[in-house]
Amino acid sequence: MTEPRHRYDARLANRIEPRWQERWEAEQTFRSANPAGELAEPDHPRAGAPKQFVMDMFPYPSGAGLHVGHPLGYIATDVYSRYLRMAGYNVLHPMGYDAFGLPTEQYAVATGRQPAEITAENIDRYRDQLRRLGMGYDTRREFATTDPDFFKWTQWIFLQIFNSYYDTEADKARPIGDLIAAFESGERGTPDGRPWSELSEVERRRIVDGHRLAYVTEAPVNWCPGLGTVLSNEEVTAEGKSERGNFPVYTRTLKQWMLRITAYSDRLLRDLDDLDWFESLKAMQRNWIGKSTGAYADFATYAGDIRVFTTRPDTLFGATYMVLAPEHELVDSLTAETWPAGIPESWTGGHATPAEAVTAYRHEAAAKTDVERQADAKVKTGVFTGGYATNPVNGENVPVFIADYVLAGYGTGAIMAVPAHDQRDFAFAKAFDIPIRQVVAGEEEWDGESAYTDNVNGTCVNSDFLDGLKVPEAKERINAWLAEHGRGEAAVNYRLRDWLFSRQRYWGEPFPIVYDESGLPVALPEDQLPVELPQMDDFSPKTFGAEDADTAPEPPLGRAKDWVEVELDLGDGPRTYRREVNTMPNWAGSSWYQLRYTDPHSDDRIAAAANESYWMGPQDGGDVGGVDLYIGGVEHAVLHLLYARFWQKVLYDLGHVSSREPFRRLFNQGYIQAPAYSDARGAYVPAEEVEERGGEFFHGGEKVKREFGKIGKSLKNVVTPDGICAEYGADTFRVYEMSMGPLADSKPWETRAITGSYRFLQRLWRNVVDEDTGEVTVADAEPGEETLRELHKAIAGVREDYGHLRMNTAVAKLITLNNHVTGLDTVPRSVAEALVLMAAPVAPHIAEELWERLGHTGGIAYADFPVADDRYLVEETVTYPVQVNGKVRARIDIAADAAEEAVREAALAEGKVADNVAGKEVRKVIVVPGRMVSIVAK
């Protein structure tokens, strides 16, 4: 049997979809109008309308292209943006590419090609795939972080951070020139008290550099020999391996660029309250920032005071030992020449002298990352330094150990250990035979088998002047005592560490920094930006053996001698400088790209003030500003999102932007999972090579195990959208992804289930177009009452669902209405047009085609979205379930506007209800208007 010539199928879809994509591109359909500058358009269809800035976390383009999990969020923002345009908004919906970074560099090294060439190819691939899916982007605003016109401003922002300091009194960043002026005037004293005028230029610069928000320092870092670069804490797994490549990571002390994000700790916490984000994501940021209140306490030693931060100053009388990080600055001074008499053998680590024990333990600790060191290991390790410290509250001498569970970069790098009231200290004390003294008691006697950690209800004991006080009162009393005696003070501490900003890679943004003969950094002037990477034939990083912890980074740029050594005139005549040979991490470009979308062609600033404030500025006095909707994965909660918030706040403090937050509303989409198959060894096999036989799965004749997991190369379960589009069309793919379930949930991909979305679009087509003739079949007839009710109920529901990102239920309502229309003898034009308009955001190509065939010109993108008529939303009757003693016995239909007494009488008169209450006393009849009737009878 011959298929109808005008049936909607994959062949027709693949004919009309490219045609509409070409038209959208030619007409710049999805352009948005700026209020000023090159992209201002007074004649734009939405000029003067309210704005909405809708944005995706932009992709890192790989050669493999998109798999079906990638577009989930992209399609959702596209559906939402299309709906908003039709609802009357001026919508900014852009797309760009995060293109610097390690994956491209590694592929370039492996293939002997240039990263720039590979990046361009990968971007073209992603762009083509996104276009094939019908994405409605303002393509005039597209950029990649590797474009010189973009990273010029990344470098410029770095210079703003470098040329700023944090004024703690004003609680904001200020230009470094203000700090220098304060030193020059004497308003601010120098560290050693000498007048500013008596200091040498280098001494002054060192003081100033110590206050900058971007600074160079010797710091413990995560060194990954296998990658040849250092990594941030966030890029290291809990197993102490690199997130990229799974190489071992070690702690080394190296000179690195750091950004002083810790200065913003409190503001980063405080402003979370004003953001429309998932509470679970806010909690992740709060935990990462890790604010804790307590006190500093100073323990005296012959080598100087050891300052500790503790959240439990009320337990100071129970401190029976101290622990320093192996890297702590006082370890060498405290390490004794010989072991004190009478100490347990476990304290020595089996070494003849404290120095040998400390050296060996330090080497052992360096082979672990901070993440590994903080994990709750069952066996506690450490060694005694041979030195002692004096407890400030009771004068007792307590032994000082080093142990890897204390980190130099966290707190003060030292802790007072109270084993009776901290489980980790308790385990350590048990392992090393250290006294355990109870100083907080509960109502029941402590069994001594584990630490007693109640920090609210306990009462102080064995604590001198604190005895009898509850923990909260004791904290206040001891804080006052420490301050009064000059041995400490109340304090707030944070878990957040400064942002490690150096990478020993080639494919990254060069720093706009040079070094002069003093070895100190010098900022390049703005007119010398961008600093571009030199062309290098050999840009491979110097890597080392996976277990070689004692090596040091050798950045590839160090080999570009002609680029590194440069003669510049920076205002005092030509001089020779040395460029910074590290590059910025790949998080740099994504920390501010939302701003560039607002004004992508501005050449004199990151964005013109009028455009930035229009798209991102606060909407009222209490609004933090930012992108109106940002969609992406929760995996970026403490990387990209925290970094972007920090950069935005610095720019806000310095007056460059109007909003203090980058993203006012954030939505985390779930993952799409697909079947993955593993063999008897537990190794994954390519999913596309697996056969199903009788409910079991085989690969190469061997039975394999099926599971569902996040789509990706590691599980070998990649499904590409290209094949789906070829077989069904892009609209079917879009409808299926949006109908799979709530956007925030993870859900399994099932190719066979796509046919339901395909059939929906086929029915939609048939409701307008005759499959045999291709003629439009709708009639200029008035819809019946039932159809009007179905139509307006769908309009109200679909508007609500699109507006709240409930795409799956919006599709369900469209299918319900479409099925109703399918059952009509004739399809009224008004109903067909409303149905096509409502389908347009989720299935834009078929909607455009049907809209044009219905006789409309100008496209559907700016057609007004239907508005429900309230008259048809009023239900004439309501169905009440009727419960008798908690069990539903019947249902009654009654007028929606019936009085409560009428509902009560109708319920009691219903036959089954009457039978159930016969012979009983009806004690109570509760009517919940519009919902239910509950009868209590005894």
Beta-strand portion reads: 15-25%
Largest sheet: 6 strands, mixed
Name the structural class: alpha+beta
Radius of gyration: 34 Å
Count of distinct structural domains = 4
User: Unreliable stretches, pLDDT < 50, 5 or more residues?
Assistant: none
**Helical content class:** 25-40%
Number of helices: 28
Mean residue pLDDT: 92
Q: How would the global form be characterised?
A: globular
Tally of DSSP β-strands = 33
First and last CA, distance? 69 Å
Concise structural overview:
The protein has 4 domains: 31-145 and 588-668, HUPs (Rossmann fold, 3-Layer(aba) Sandwich), CATH 3.40.50; 156-287 and 499-587, no CATH class; 292-493, Alpha-Beta Complex (Isoleucyl-tRNA Synthetase, domain 2), CATH 3.90.740.10; 875-937, Ubiquitin-like (UB roll), CATH 3.10.20. 32% of the residues lie in helices and 18% in strands.
List keywords for this structure.
alpha+beta; Rossmann fold; Isoleucyl-tRNA Synthetase, domain 2; six-stranded mixed β-sheet; four-stranded parallel β-sheet; 28 helices
